[in-house]
Amino acid sequence: MGIPPRTAARYCAAALLWTLTLSGCTTSAPRPTPAPADPSPSSPAQICASLVSYWVEETLKGGKWAGLDWEQKGLSNEQYAIHEDAVAAGRAEERTAGLNKALEAADRVVAQRCAAQNGATWSSENWRPPSAGTRSPE
User: What is the dihedral of CA 38, 100, 86, 115, to 10 degrees?
Assistant: First the structure.
């Protein structure tokens, strides 16, 4: 007669579980230690420099997304002005010294301006504070 198929499958599963338990394989394996996180920019000037430098590099290299407008890039009006000045400085440097020197020159402009303007995080000129009748989200 033999063992019905369902019962045989249960026996096999139980035997496998028993074998794994005896061999030390458990579901609570030691967790790997997380890799140290990359240090992220923390000051407004560092965040500004990181953001604006990225978009300046994309523009100077002719990257796929270089043509986005300042809002799509997540830049404030002040940051966009820094971007445009850095791109102009980079292009001037590129004509005489090449792309690598252009990127270095643009990074210097960005770092100096972002530091001088404390991150240049003022919102766009289109931003308006909420009116008195507007409720804040709770």
Answer: 40
